[in-house]
Design goal:
The protein has 94 residues and is α+β, with helices and mostly antiparallel strands. Helix content is 28%, strand content 19%. It has a single domain, classed as Alpha-Beta Plaits (2-Layer Sandwich), CATH 3.30.70. The chain is built from four helices and four strands.
Amino acid sequence: MRGGPRAYSDRITRLPGLVMSSVGDCALCEKCSRACFLGAVRVEAGGPVFSDSCKGCGRCADACPRRNIRIRLDPDVDTEAALMRRIGARTDIE
Ligand code: SF4
Ligand code: SF4
């Protein structure tokens, strides 16, 4: 989907409360940016920087030889409730 129509990538939504970050041990190898299917992470002098188009899929974290990319859930966001609202909007499950 990299460079493809926005209509495709817009269909994938990031999990509410999911936070991408760098733990500070970056080798600047750019394997993460090459692994991203959306071009949503670029590598700067201080390490990876994630754009708003990041979907939180984790491909970049898997590709990182230093396990420098951390994926976590913000404890201040009720991810489960947000997920259930999403599912509820598309089904008749209560
Ligand atoms: S989590 Fe997925 S979408 Fe986000 S930067 Fe990494 S590979 Fe790209
Ligand atoms: S793959 Fe890991 S070590 Fe390489 S640039 Fe990305 S975050 Fe840094």
